[in-house]
Amino acid sequence: MSENIKEDIALLQELLRDSDEKFRLLYESEPFVYDSLDENGIILEVSQGWLNLLGYTREEVIGHWLGEFYTPEYREDFSRHWQLTKDSGIVDNVYVKLARKDGTVIDAVIYARLRYDNNGNLVRTHCITHDISEQKKANEALKRSEYEKALILEVMSDAIIFRDTRMKVLWANRNAAAPFNMTPEQMIGTYCFREAHGRETPCDGCIIAKTLRTGQPETGERSNGTNTYIVRGYPVRDAVGDLIGVVHVAHDITERRRLERELLERSALEQQKFGRDLHDGLGQMLTGIAFIARALQEQLETRALPEAVDAAKLEEIAERALLVTHRLAKGLDPVGLDTESFLTAVSELALTTETLFGAVCTFRHDDVPGSLEKDVPIHLYYIIQEAINNAIKHGRAKSIGVTIRCLDGQLLLTICDDGSGLPATVQSKGMGLQTMKYRASTLGGCLMLHNNDRGGVTLTCSLPLQRVSVP
């Protein structure tokens, strides 16, 4: 053998020893879970990471069959599939359960490559084991969470949808899908403005679009012609605070609105009945008192008695009481079905306010439609009446201005007073304010209050003209 060949062989042997040393250092490193088997599945080598994972010493492992360290059911699988593994020469992502020395079980996946000699005989295997116990626990916890979430979503009566920032549906519960005649799975990937309205952009006043625009929770009321819903949008943000979607919750308040409307109608009927009783009962009695006082005055004047002056005063008081009674009765049963009678009733309400409370109350109107829908006059009248009462009772206002006009396709009611203003925390759940807001929403509008810079309160009620006026 020539010297050159000897030198080449020596070099190759040195490289091989260096390679083996590097490989030994690699598989003995702490996180590296490695084992090597012979043709019978007997363990030839294991890394320190493998020993640490299963809790054995090297002497307890080397020379033993690998299946001894599997749980019984996976031990049988290892024995049954060993020949297939030797034939294929590869193992990829195979799930197994390993038994630690202390009896606990490890969930793991195995990756292996097999080494053969020139004659095709198995020399040894090189296997890497990944402990996925924590990952599996996390996955199972996630599955439980998803299952529980699905159960909660299904039993909730509200329609709940999670949308991305383009308003595409990512998931929905059954109550959200039902109005579209879809399953929750069919809802995924859809857009409500396409499915419900045949549009390519969100509807005007869309609560979800507003939530995406402001990044804040938003609430509004919507109706599809059959049902009425309170719609809420809740922004969803990722770990760094970026907006990633909106949870859309729609609560059906159709029945509640029906009951509220029925309550208001019954209350209005009771008020109207009381107004008629006041007019026909007390009004007639006051008329009788005024008539008798006038007759008494005439008799006393005929006799030139000084008590005639007192009789005249009695008649005057009775006439004034009768006027107030008529105005109160009119306030309880105020409005006919046409615009003219409505405007007249509001004018009389302003006059009655001045008569009863001594506050200046003015009423102005401009370009009010000649014909309003049936329910509009009565709802507007009671909103005005409640606002005036609040200004007098709570704000102790001395001046109140009521204005009705048309602006930008809206019928706009404004009531401004010079009272003490709203407190720092408005009692938004008070019956009066809630009723006013309900009346406005019934007409498709909205009602807002705010303090004026120079004192007092301004109430604004905006109603869409196309909803409240008769074409």
What would you call the quaternary organization? Answer: single chain
Unreliable stretches covering 5 or more consecutive residues = none
| CATH topology descriptor of the largest domain | Heat Shock Protein 90
What percent strand? 15-25%
Q: What does this 3D model show about the protein?
A:
The chain has 471 residues and is of the alpha+beta class. It is built from 14 helices and 15 strands. It has helices at 3-27, 48-54, 72-88, 133-155, 174-177, 184-187, 192-195, 207-214, 254-302, 308-332, 339-357, 376-393, 431-442, 465-468; strands at 34-37, 43-46, 90-99, 105-116, 122-131, 159-164, 169-172, 218-223, 228-237, 243-252, 360-366, 399-407, 410-417, 446-451, 457-464. It has a five-stranded antiparallel sheet, with helices on both faces. The chain has a five-stranded antiparallel sheet with strand order 7-6-10-9-8, with helices on both faces. A hairpin with a 5-residue loop joins strand 3 and strand 4 (105-116). Helix 9 (254-302) packs antiparallel against helix 10 (308-332), helix 11 (339-357) runs parallel beside helix 12 and helix 12 packs antiparallel against helix 13. The model has no long low-confidence stretch (mean pLDDT 82).
